[in-house]
Amino acid sequence: MKFKELSKSIQDIHLAFAKQAGRSVNMALTMRNWLIGLYIKEYEQKGLDRVKYGSNTITLLADELQKEKIPSTAYTSLKQYRQFYDLYPQIGQTASGQLKILVQTKELPAAIGKTLSGQSKANKKIQKPQDIPTLSPEKLITSLSYSHFVELMKIEDPLKRSFYEIESIHGNWSSRELRRQISTLYYERLGLSKNKAKLTKMIATGTSAHDIQDVIREPYVFEFAGVKHEEVNEATVANALLRQLNSFFLEMGRGFCFEASNKKILIGDQFYFIDLVLYHRILKCHFLIELKINELNHENVSQLNTYVNYYKKNEMHSGDNPPVGLLLCTEKNEALAEYALGGIDNKLFVSKYQLELPTKSEIKKFLEKKLKELPQSILPVEQKKFKRKKIR
């Protein structure tokens, strides 16, 4: 072993155990908060003197606990813990095993272990909707921090919540990144225009889309780039995305790998530059991305088609699928896009991108548009009813 190898080995050991320690702390906090929620719920349903306190139970409990200087027991926190228990009762199955040792070593009263054991048996009888995939409780509490659960509890739709649980784990998202993905309509943009059964199968298996049509999104939101409108040009946007590569790839979707920026290619005796070149490891093809700060025009499509033809002839290797061209514009003329792309053999796509989060009115328009695009034959009953209603 050389000195550098010794140093690297020690660094790896430190990082591995530091990560394990951090995970243990996160699990302990998650189980603590879940258990508090369980006891509040149990008291509200079976407390011997619950009538005496009524609707003021949590308020008075918060006052009592804060007098004893118990951290994170304010009124809003206690309500949140109760909601946590309601939405994730299955965590008791794991918590029971984890806390059994603490009960046996007298670090927790035996009564707590008894309550938890009874809850664990009851939770196993809970029937989950068959069309909603769920992760094991062990996977949830070992992979997600309580901060993640705080964001997930804000989501009412169980399918949508399950989607973000799985995506958070697969993407190794921080709670901050999870919040950003929710606020930028990741689920809606990825799944609303797709067949619900197909989306359910995709998130149940934890796999990415295997079709180019499913990889392309509309719109892309690059608010993390921090580009001011007065500074916008194609170079500043591209450079800003490169400075935030992690966020950029999270927005693009799973499977993308960075290959080059401002890629120089020689066609004839003239050099041309492709804004971004990515490789999709699942689809096994290059994505050539051109950023435009104006509305789509046919010259942009012609330019991108030229680049795709060049890559197809000169850059494809054994095992590669034909390259894909993606034109990102600030404004998209749907009619022009249809005619400009029509008759082209190459796979070219045009999507709109935004440098700031969509407004409420933009979200409304997006949802209305996507619902109109859905064939009636694949809409679940609840979505058919929703379609006939005006979105408020």
What is the global morphology?
A: elongated
The gyration radius over C-alpha positions equals 26 Å
Number of strands: 6
Query: How many helix segments?
Result: 19
Which helices and strands, and how do they pair?
Elements: H1 3-46, H2 50-53, H3 57-67, H4 75-87, H5 91-104, H6 110-123, H7 137-143, H8 146-152, H9 158-170, H10 175-183, H11 186-191, H12 196-205, H13 212-215, E1 220-221, H14 234-243, H15 245-252, E2 256-267, E3 270-280, E4 285-291, H16 298-314, E5 324-329, H17 334-341, E6 347-354, H18 360-373, H19 381-388
Parallel strand pairs: 1-6, 4-5, 5-6
Antiparallel strand pairs: 2-3, 3-4
Helix pairs in contact: 1-4, 5-6, 5-7
Please explain how this structure is put together.
The chain has 392 residues and is of the alpha/beta class. It has a domain at 212-358: Trna Endonuclease, Chain: A, domain 1, CATH 3.40.1350.10. It has 19 helices and six strands. Strands 1-6-5-4-3-2 form a six-stranded mixed β-sheet, sandwiched between helices. The longest helix has 44 residues, at 3-46.
Short summary:
This protein has 392 residues and is α/β, with parallel strands linked by helices.
